[in-house]
Amino acid sequence: MQPTRTKPNRNKINLVIDLAIFVAFLIAMSPHFSGIAVHEWLSIAFGAAIIAHLLLHWEWIVGITRSFFKKARWSARSNYVLNVLLFIDITIVIFTGLMISEDALPLFGIQTIRGGIWHGLHSFSADLSLVLVGLHIALHWEWIVKMFKRFVLTPLLPRRLSPQMQLTAQPPDKKVQP
Amino acid sequence: MKLLLRVLMIVVAALIVSGATFALSRTSLASNMSGPQRGQFERRPSTTADGASTREQASAPQLDGAGPPEGFRRGGERGGGGLFSLVEVGGHLLVIALIVAAVSFLSRVTQPLQARLAARRKPAPPASTA
Ligand code: HEM
After folding, report:
1. Own/partner pairs for A134-140, CB < 8 Å, 24+ apart?
2. Which of A92, A115, A137 is facing B21, going by the closest CB pair?
3. Are A7 and A172 in contact (CB under 8 A)?
């Protein structure tokens, strides 16, 4: 007998990765809270998670890149511009973080620059990323709420308590664009 | 293979941004940004020629008024934690929540306007000849 393989749900994967990225971002934003070693290693892992996030939304990126100057809707265009700014800013935060690294790079014998411009840039771009991440989340808020209801609230709540949610929830295999 | 190519494209894009940042950091514009920053950890203790740390100097009270109260400062430790830092996480969460609330409010308020604009953009249906 053939073993039945269930296809992983794309929305569920997106929700889990996005949630992990968000928690990592919050921790990375507070190096006083995490300690500097956790801050650096977590932020490097954060960079890898961002790559996964982009790969999962590759079709959207390619689609809007192609139609940006032609027939894309204004909401998609502004979303795209915000995402490009966010990518640039997060890259700068990670790059400047590596330039002032106190734990991660020195571990490999790489001497880093202390303080000065790089610290200032790191701090400034991190502050800016808080605003950009806020806007990014705001633009996808409907999707986040919908997925949270479907994959977290509905399975957790007893069925008879959430008839409204069952009505609003879509079949789990249907992909919803964030 | 396709996946590898996509990862490569993302990495190259990140390298371009990093290269541009590095190049910009060499300009005079960048040197204006290297002043003291708000809320940063206290200046890293410098090391004397014999390798001994001059931490006492570095952790002298700062009079700029920026950053956490002295008692909550990292004090040169490498670990994190503490009440102030938890408040910091909450503060960041609050900023994001406020942005989400503001954008949701704005899009709700401007919804009728957006609908009207969308309707105007749609071509009028052809007049019935019957
Ligand atoms: C998502 C990525 C990152 C975010 C959001 C972030 C955020 C921050 C913030 C908010 C600060 C405090 C700045 C201040 O004192 O005003 C900081 C400091 C710092 N970060 Fe990052 N960072 C990230 C990535 C990195 C990476 C990849 C490294 C190194 C591998 C790094 C190393 C440092 C160091 C060494 C400090 C300075 C600590 C000190 O002042 O002694 N960061 N970061």
Report:
1. A134/B95, A134/B96, A134/B98, A134/B99, A134/B100, A135/A82, A135/B99, A135/B103, A136/A82, A136/A83, A136/A86, A137/A22, A137/B96, A137/B99, A137/B100, A138/B99, A138/B100, A138/B102, A138/B103, A138/B104, A139/A79, A139/A82, A139/B103, A140/A178
2. A92
3. no
Q: How far apart are CA A172 and CA A11, in angstroms?
A: 8
Binding pocket residue ranges, ligand 1, CB within 6 Å: A 28-29, 31, 36, 39-40, 43-44, 46, 90, 93-94, 97-98, 100-102, 104, 122-123, 126, 129; B 37, 39-41, 44
What does the buried/exposed string (b/e) look like for B6-30 if buried means 16 or more CB atoms within 10 Å of the residue's CB? Answer: beeebeeebeebbeebeeebeeeeb
CB-count burial class (<10 Å; 0-12, 13-18, 19+) for A15: buried
- Residues of chain B contacting residue A118, judged by C-beta atoms under 8 Å apart: 25
Q: What are the CA-CA distances from residue A121 to residues A89, A95, A106, A117, B29 (Å)?
A: 10, 10, 20, 6, 12
Does A31 sit within 8 Å of B92, measured CB to CB? no
Token pair, residue A20, equals: 């992990």
Q: What is the ipTM of this complex?
A: 0.82
Structure token digits, residue B42: 């206290």
pTM > 0.80: yes or no: no
Smallest Cα distance from B28 to chain A, Å: 11
* Tens-binned pLDDT, residue by residue, of chain A (178 aa): 555 666 678 899 999 999 999 999 999 999 999 999 999 999 999 999 999 999 999 999 999 999 888 877 888 899 999 999 999 999 999 999 999 999 999 999 888 877 678 999 999 999 999 999 999 999 999 999 999 999 998 888 876 555 555 555 444 444 455 5
